[in-house]
Amino acid sequence: MGIIKNLKVKYRKLVAMRLMEVIENKTTYEINVLDATCMLRKAWADVTQQTVANCFAKAGFQLSMCVKCDVAGRPPHQTRRRRRQ
Q1: Phi and psi at residue 18, to the nearest 5°
Q2: Quick check: pTM over 0.90?
Q3: How many Å apart are CA 64 and CA 22, to the nearest integer?
Q4: Do 27 and 68 form a contact (C-beta atoms < 8 A)?
Q5: SS3 1
Q6: Is the confidence at residue 39, as pLDDT, over 80?
Q7: pLDDT above 60 (res 37)
Q8: Residue 77 has what DSSP assignment?
């Protein structure tokens, strides 16, 4: 499954769970932009690194094409060195 499809499945699951809670509690609920954004953020956090890696591999990217990054996720040429004071 691709990255976007995986994200959509996880998002829809969160929406369905929210709707089930509403039905069980016999209340009304509308999903606003903030709620949708929060659920989307949660769904994205649930997409695994393995899913992303598999999709990139299937697209033809190879590990040798990747740039090693520092701890902050920046490529080495963008790493800032702190000045000693």
Answers
A1: -65, -45
A2: no
A3: 49
A4: no
A5: coil
A6: yes
A7: yes
A8: G
39 CB-near residues (< 8 Å, 6+ apart): 11, 14, 15, 18, 31
For residues 52-75, give the mean pLDDT: 72
Give the Cα separation of 56 and 52 in Å (integer): 6
Q: What is the mean pLDDT of residues 25-51?
A: 93
More confidently predicted of 57 and 74? 57
Average pLDDT over residues 45-52: 93
Distances (CA, A) of 72 to 69, 75, 79: 8, 9, 9
The enclosing H or E element of 33 equals: helix 33-46
Angle value at C-alpha 30, between 28 and 35, nearest 5 degrees: 130
Residue in the structure block whose two tokens are 């997409």: 47
CB 43 within 8 A of CB 10: yes
Q: Which residue has the tokens 């699951």?
A: 13
